[in-house]
Design goal:
There is one protein chain. This protein is mainly alpha-helical. The protein is built from 21 helices and six strands. The strands form three sheets. Strands 1-2 form a two-stranded antiparallel ribbon. α8 runs antiparallel to α9 and α17 runs antiparallel to α18. This is Adenylosuccinate lyase. It comes from Bifidobacterium aemilianum.
């Protein structure tokens, strides 16, 4: 049996196979049928605008010989993309098999639907006579750039952002839950000034939310200006129309995008590069989190909840592996590699047009799909761990030398205040503590050996590694707006 002979076809990539249930929401916006549906939408909305104009326009944009469409005709046209399903997909594919041109196949598909209009609207409708209006004065990129912008905007707003925000919300909740839970910090992998587990989660929540703010403020640009961006055919064919105003109204008023007035044949894709770099940045922040969580689990700071019936190792029955975090780490890397390529290659086009962007943009769904998969796994991973307080307490109690920073900084402060006997604070503490493991008694003996005033000595002797967390708790509550 050849796998290629099996129907329905076997998925080649894990996004459409093994992980299809996690990435399926993006199909609604970034699959090939979704793109064709948006192309149809752009075409029919352009027909409607050319026929009926728009409110407040001083120059009647309706073309000579084209009467305004009725409300029923407008509804029929808008119903074409809405009804684009399995039959429409097959019909479009049949046309493309002949034309070898996806946008031309869209045009022929719409022509078919116009031929059927009298069945739905009656014999008086003139829609079948408006085939000439389909794709009027457009180059394929006029349709494609608007369709892609619409698709990507919806995918980000409806799928990717909610998933990323759910992760940010989870981090915020963990920050609040663990805000008072002391944690031995490691800088360069070595014991350092303690923090709280909540504060460390808040750091990631803050970093992620900043990038999500950038994504929410992202512009999505569009253009409709002809074969080389000059409205040349438009002006020659219909000089009476204010094409600049009409183009702007279509891009902004009908498509809900930001109008780009200056392009070659293609919309320059700068907004796409900006967006993909921001999503990649968010990916890398969360890649950092996935790695840190893996290390925390390895260190015993977080304990994993074993899933009943699951297997951690084919040979070692005791294992509960941090697979969610490993999966997230790998898929963030896959996503970033594609997003980086998209951001770099989409910025360039040879003179007024080449087709490198056409192939490249077909990978937008994969780029966001790997990110969505990673977000899903990371969130599931975070929801399946809890702090191991016994390990955290043991680490703190085994590293009293981390109080050296507090002691030598206090000695500096008292020296500046004029207290005698506070000279060479760093050197004195270094001699006692560097490279050694000491306990509470040695710390108290050192404090007693210095010329601290009683109040300062008492404050220092009251410190433990578990209480030496500064303003970590307050930082979790800090107003970050």
């Amino acid at each position: 049996m050849r796998l290629t002979d099996i129907t329905p076809p076997i998925a080649l990539t894990p996004l459409d196979g093994r992980y299809q249930h996690q990435t399926a929401p993006l199909t609604e916006y970034l699959s090939e049928p979704a793109l064709n549906r948006e192309r149809i939408l752009v075409e029919v909305e352009w027909m409607i605008l050319l026929s009926n104009g728009y409110e407040g326009n001083a120059h009647q944009p309706a073309l000579e010989g084209v009467r305004p469409l009725t409300d029923r005709e407008v509804s029929y046209l808008r119903g074409i993309p809405e009804a684009f399903g399995s039959e429409g997909i097959a019909a479009h594919a049949a046309y493309e098999a002949v034309t070898h041109h996806d946008v031309k196949a869209v045009e022929y598909y719409i022509d078919d639907q116009l031929d059927k209009a009298r069945q739905a609207l009656g014999p008086d409708t003139r829609l079948p006579e408006l085939k000439t209006l389909v794709h009027f004065a457009c180059t394929s990129e006029d349709i494609n750039n608007l369709a892609y912008a619409h698709c990507v905007h919806q995918a980000v707003e409806q799928v990717w952002l909610p998933a990323a925000q759910a992760l940010a919300d989870r981090l915020e909740a963990m920050a609040q839950d663990y805000r008072d839970l002391p944690l031995l910090a490691l800088t360069h992998g070595q014991p350092a000034t303690p923090t709280t587990l909540g504060k460390e989660m808040a750091v990631y929540a803050y970093r992620l939310n900043r990038q999500l703010g950038h994504v929410r403020r992202q512009e999505y640009l569009g253009k409709l200006n002809g074969a080389t961006g000059s409205f040349a055919a438009h002006v020659v064919a219909c000089p009476q129309v204010d094409w600049l105003a009409l183009s702007r109204e279509f891009v902004e008023g009908r498509m809900g995008l930001t109008w780009n007035p200056l392009t070659t044949q293609i919309e320059s894709h700068d907004w796409q590069a900006e967006l993909y770099r921001t999503v990649a940045h968010a990916n890398r922040v969360l890649h950092n989190l996935a790695v840190d969580m893996w290390l925390y689990i390895s260190r015993g700071i977080f304990a994993q909840e074993a899933v009943k019936g699951a297997t951690g190792s084919s040979t070692m029955p005791h294992k509960v592996n941090p697979i969610r975090f490993e999966n997230a780490e790998a898929n963030f890397e896959m996503s970033c590699s594609l997003l980086d390529t998209l951001a770099a290659t989409l910025l360039e086009s040879r003179w007024q047009r080449d087709l490198t962007d056409s192939t490249t943009q077909r990978n937008i769904g994969s780029a966001l799909g790997y990110s969505l998969l990673a977000l899903s796994n990371l969130l599931t991973g975070l929801e399946s761990v809890h702090p191991n307080r016994a390990v955290m307490d043991r680490e703190l109690d085994g590293n009293w030398e981390v109080l050296g920073e507090a002691i030598q900084t206090t000695m500096r402060a008292r020296q500046l205040a004029g207290d005698p006997g506070m000279g060479q604070p760093y050197e004195k503490v270094k001699e006692l503590m560097r490279g050694r493991s000491i306990g509470q008694s040695q710390v108290e003996e050192f404090i007693d050996s210095q010329d601290f005033d009683p109040q300062t000595a008492a404050r220092l002797k009251a410190l433990t590694p578990g209480t030496y967390t500064g303003l970590a708790c307050e930082l979790v509550h800090f107003d970050k707006s």
